[in-house]
UniProtKB/TrEMBL annotation:
It comes from the Bacteria. It comes from Lutibacter oceani. The keyword ATP-binding does not apply. GO terms for molecular function: ligase activity. The keyword Signal does not apply. This is Phenylacetate-CoA ligase. Keywords: Ligase. InterPro entries: ANL_N_sf (IPR042099), CapK_Type1_Caps_Biosynth (IPR053158).
Amino acid sequence: MLKKVIFKLGQKLRNPSLNNWFSFLKKSESWTLKELENYQLLKLKELVSVAYNNSKFYRNLFEENGLSPSDINSLADLKKIPIISKEDLITKNKDIQVTLKATKFFKASTSGTTGQALNFLKDEFSDSFNRASMFRGYSWYKVNPWDKNGYFWGYNFSSKEKLKTRGLDVLQNRFRIFNFNDKQLKLFSNKLHDSVYVHGYSSAIYETAKKINRQHFNKPLNLKMVKGTSEKIYERYQDEIKKAFGQKMISEYGAAETGIIAFECPSGNMHINMEGVIVEEINEEIIITNLQMQSFPVIRYRLGDYVKLAPENKECACGLKHLIIEEVTGRIGAIVYGEKLTYPSLYFYYIFKNLAKQGVFLNYQIVQNIKGKLNFFIEQDLSMEHKKLLENEIERYFKKDLKIKINTNFEFKTREGKHKSFISNIL
């Protein structure tokens, strides 16, 4: 009870509009698809008007393309607006930022894992909406945000930052692991005994699950939710995670500049947070419009992920009518350099997906230091048969344009930050 009171007090001080947003989102859970789309159009018109009248960047963008807010009268009209990039958000940052009559603003930033860090001001209303969206997802699993929870996030702090972080963790009934030696891992595992949920980087949760299973630590009995975020969740993670935590890992998908895009329901579908975003799929690439953030408008934004959307008529057993993302297939990232040609790094996703269809589930990382050569690091041991299957899949996509080296029984080090499936060291 005390933890709830502390959490609620902090929430009221930091996010005074959060309760209203949460109540709204719980009501909109029962909306029809048409009602959701009507709300999206209402918010889109409002967003476009605010951006046009208050943001130099968007006014110029509209005028250069012969557009005005009155041209946006349907969700289909959104396609009239040009797509913007992260580079636009960074280089035109001051021209995009809008000063609203909001009670407060928060400094927000992206992680910069793509090599481009973004900083901006987020108004309290949109920040509270985003948190309420997250808490709505928690409610599907009968989890309260003030419940005791384990957190897998960054931990490479200075002593001062570590102390500050621990203080914030106490206020949120949260604990995290700061290093992964056996002693700390056992302490962390013991704290999980009466915890309700764990969340954080999916690769860190997976690596921790493996170590808990190998060390035969006591398994938590009361976990209701294991949530992975900020990274793709691979199917091969699930067996280890279920064994260690008693639950499969579910996915929360979003970004600092877009807010929560989708949250996985107990029936296993990733429902789009339609009250907060409009999602478009163009050539398998996701384009996002953040409907709730008016202080830093993000309209038709190329996030940098490949996705696959479900058909609009797909129904979910959970009853939600919100549209569904079937899969976040990968990050649009570094180019793979052959001796003669270049290739998208998405090929690696398909290579290992094809192997999984044949019953070969591998944890992997590919590194390119020299053009025309690739190093494959595989966590598992490979039989001759499975190694041949991998070689055949690689040749299927890259032909004879790359020399490859396959390293097996590789131990991936659990560390701060995201696990990257492909690392290119070619400038």
